[in-house]
């Protein structure tokens, strides 16, 4: 159900929303004050009750992640904020950093207190110059106001935040690649274990969270964990609160919208997004960043089993299922970053697939052979499909290649590249086959509407 | 000829080192600082960064070649990145790129003969709702039309000669 709220986006649209003055007027740093008066365990418990699932794509419960942190006898703990937003289709974290950076700083204070850290690094991709500028401005203001430093809010809990930049590599959004990059190395993912909570940044216990995850914590402490979770229609599935939804592609009003979890793809595309561009029909939607397998509007939910997560929507269109971590997984796709890419019937699915595959070939770090070779191989075959020179056998080969990349790499990038491939092969088999058989003549020949 | 930072950037470098518990972690921010001054990462810059971060030049070379935003050869005074990833492509990024290539008389990846503009493609600039998007130096230009691109390019091609 569509329930729009203004929690994370409270300050959006207010003049100079990025300043401490406006942040304070909107209640900024009141939750940090609370957190600094509480024992760490109480903060973790509240975030667990809030059922805050990671907003970076994987959907891991944030409170549980925090509880993995154990005080080390000699080493400090670190909080690292993943602001390397770069999953195609995803553009929500940038709005937080540009429009309400103090919310992120406050979230860092809360999270650092919970996990026992005195320092946080925000890893921002280099291209986001405005976001970096606003974050540094907010950090300076917070330091001058005594919110960061040796004795924030008179708590005696020293805390500082630094901004660190990458240099153009999608893979650095993978948490262990990010840690290597932050340490001044090539951004190649690490083998786990050890997990970051055991040995992360500089070999110290570390928690890595997405920007929006951290920026949600002031709201959790403001409303209370239980109340935050109950904003969501999927509270019973342990998927709580409100979050940012993005929308791009062939819709009338693309953008970032805040709503309670329970929002469906239909709500997002037709209510918030104002529907499809005039004269176009919905062909497919990628629900949460380009790694997520595509859904088609003709698909219906098949969940006769009463115990199935999807049973309440049995027989309904997939567009009417609330976008949640578990609901989308059961549909065979992912909620990811909940930033949807909408394709209309003007767009050629083969060209869309080619665009996605080029991205993953370009961004594979090259460390693991199945991914390095597999992404290149898949791209070359898709190029042949687009050029009209591929064979049906090659279409089948793509299944084999994608399946052999899955699960055979150090990090989840291999899955990220294979899942959209398998999704397109399943959902657009007919179109791709026709494309091959007609030598590309069946294509609309374009991606733009 | 060895590389050195300007006094102002030298102070900035000291501040960068103060953010981390070791010198290696300053490697990427320091490379950015040097590139800002020098325009690209020359072998002298690599020597300088290796020396300051107390690592081998091989390490710094490895870092430089991993990340797409370190220029391994001289570039134009202005850099343009046209996002070509899916959301922007759905909004017409292909035409925007072709138009830039035509106007500048170069292909993506090249620099105009007068050394003014380097044109590149980018993979997802995280502005998908505002596509098509291009980044000119440090500024994002969103919801692009061919006319807007013309105005932006006119500005770049006319201005800045001193």
Give me a quick take on this structure:
With 449 residues, chain A is an alpha/beta fold. Chain A has 3 domains: 20-230, Rossmann fold, CATH 3.40.50.11540; 241-344, Ubiquitin-like (UB roll), CATH 3.10.20; 349-437, de novo design (two linked rop proteins) (Up-down Bundle), CATH 1.20.1440. In chain A, 40% of the residues lie in helices and 11% in strands.
Detailed description of the structure:
The complex is a heterodimer of chains A (449) and B (162). With 449 residues, chain A is an alpha/beta fold. Chain A folds into three domains: 20-230, NADH-ubiquinone oxidoreductase 51kDa subunit (Rossmann fold, 3-Layer(aba) Sandwich); 241-344, Roll (Ubiquitin-like (UB roll)), CATH 3.10.20.600; 349-437, NADH-ubiquinone oxidoreductase 51kDa subunit, iron-sulphur binding domain (de novo design (two linked rop proteins), Up-down Bundle), CATH 1.20.1440. Chain A has helices at residues 20-25, 30-37, 40-49, 62-67, 93-99, 101-115, 129-144, 175-182, 211-223, 225-230, 265-272, 325-330, 349-363, 369-387, 392-405, 413-427, 429-437, and strands at residues 78-83, 119-124, 160-165, 206-210, 242-249, 255-260, 282-286, 339-344. In chain A, strand 5 (242-249) and strand 6 (255-260) form a beta hairpin. In chain A, helix 2 (30-37) packs across helix 9, helix 13 (349-363) packs antiparallel against helix 14 and helix 15 (392-405) packs antiparallel against helix 16 (413-427). Chain A is globular, with a radius of gyration of 22 Å. The relative contact order of chain A is 0.13. With 162 residues, chain B is α+β, with helices and mostly antiparallel strands. Chain B is 46% helix and 11% strand. In chain B, a hairpin with a 2-residue loop joins strand 3 (134-136) and strand 4 (139-141). The longest helix of chain B has 13 residues, at 146-158. Chain B starts with 6 loop residues before the first helix and ends with a helix. The model of chain B has no long low-confidence stretch (mean pLDDT 95). Classes of the chains: A alpha/beta (449), B alpha+beta (162).
């Amino acid at each position: 159900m569509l329930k729009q709220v203004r929690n994370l986006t409270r300050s959006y649209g207010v003049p100079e929303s990025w300043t401490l003055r406006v942040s304070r007027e909107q209640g900024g740093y009141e939750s940090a004050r609370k957190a600094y008066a509480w024992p760490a365990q109480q903060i973790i418990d509240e975030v667990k009750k809030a059922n805050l699932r990671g907003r970076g794509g994987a959907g891991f419960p944030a409170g549980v992640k925090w509880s993995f942190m154990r005080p080390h006898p000699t080493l400090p703990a670190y909080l690292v904020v993943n602001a390397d937003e770069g999953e195609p289709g995803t553009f929500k974290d940038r709005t937080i950093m540009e429009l309400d950076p103090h919310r992120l700083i406050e979230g860092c204070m809360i999270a650092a207190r919970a996990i026992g850290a005195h320092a946080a690094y925000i890893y921002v991709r280099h291209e986001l110059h405005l976001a970096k500028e606003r974050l540094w401005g907010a950090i300076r203001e917070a330091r001058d106001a005594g919110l960061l430093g040796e004795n924030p809010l008179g708590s005696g809990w020293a805390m500082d935040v630094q901004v660190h930049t990458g240099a153009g590599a999608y893979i650095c959004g993978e948490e262990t690649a990010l840690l290597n990059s932050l340490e001044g190395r090539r951004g190649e993912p690490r083998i786990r274990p050890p997990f970051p909570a055991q040995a992360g940044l500089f070999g110290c216990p570390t928690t890595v969270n997405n920007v929006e995850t951290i920026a949600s914590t002031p709201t959790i402490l403001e409303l209370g964990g239980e109340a935050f979770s109950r904003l969501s229609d999927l509270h019973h599935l342990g998927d709580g609160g409100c979050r940012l939804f993005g929308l791009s592609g062939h819709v009338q009003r693309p953008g970032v919208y805040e709503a309670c979890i329970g929002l469906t793809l239909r709500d997002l595309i037709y209510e918030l997004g104002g529907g499809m561009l005039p004269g176009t029909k919905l062909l497919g939607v990628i629900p949460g960043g380009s790694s997520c397998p595509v859904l088609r509007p003709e698909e219906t939910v098949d969940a006769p089993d009463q115990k199935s997560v999807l049973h309440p929507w049995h027989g309904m269109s997939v567009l009417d299922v609330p976008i949640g971590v578990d609901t989308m997984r059961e549909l065979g796709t992912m909620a990811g970053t909940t930033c949807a890419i909408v394709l209309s019937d003007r767009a050629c699915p083969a060209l869309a697939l080619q665009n996605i595959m080029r991205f993953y070939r370009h961004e594979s770090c090259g460390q693991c052979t199945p991914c390095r070779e597999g992404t290149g191989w898949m791209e070359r075959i898709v190029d042949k499909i687009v050029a009209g020179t591929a064979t049906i056998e090659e279409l089948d080969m793509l299944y084999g290649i994608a399946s052999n990349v899955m699960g055979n790499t150090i990090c989840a990038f291999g899955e990220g590249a294979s899942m959209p491939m398998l999704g397109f092969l399943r959902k657009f088999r007919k179109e791709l086959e026709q494309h091959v058989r007609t030598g590309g003549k069946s294509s609309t020949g374009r991606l733009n509407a | 000829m060895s590389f050195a930072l300007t006094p102002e950037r030298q102070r900035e470098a000291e501040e960068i080192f103060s953010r981390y518990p070791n010198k290696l972690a300053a490697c990427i921010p320091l490379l950015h600082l040097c590139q800002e001054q020098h325009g690209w990462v020359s072998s002298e810059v690599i020597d300088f960064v290796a020396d300051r971060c107390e690592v081998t030049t091989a390490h710094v070379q490895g870092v430089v070649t991993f990340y797409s935003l370190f220029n391994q050869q001289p570039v134009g005074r202005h850099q343009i990145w046209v996002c070509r990833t899916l959301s922007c492509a759905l909004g017409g990024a292909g035409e925007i790129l072709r138009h830039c290539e035509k106007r500048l008389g170069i292909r993506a990846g090249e620099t105009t003969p007068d050394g003014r503009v380097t044109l590149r493609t980018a993979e997802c600039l995280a502005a998908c709702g505002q596509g098509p998007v291009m980044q000119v130096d440090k500024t994002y230009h969103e919801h692009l039309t061919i006319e807007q691109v013309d105005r932006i390019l006119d500005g770049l091609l006319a201005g800045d000669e001193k």
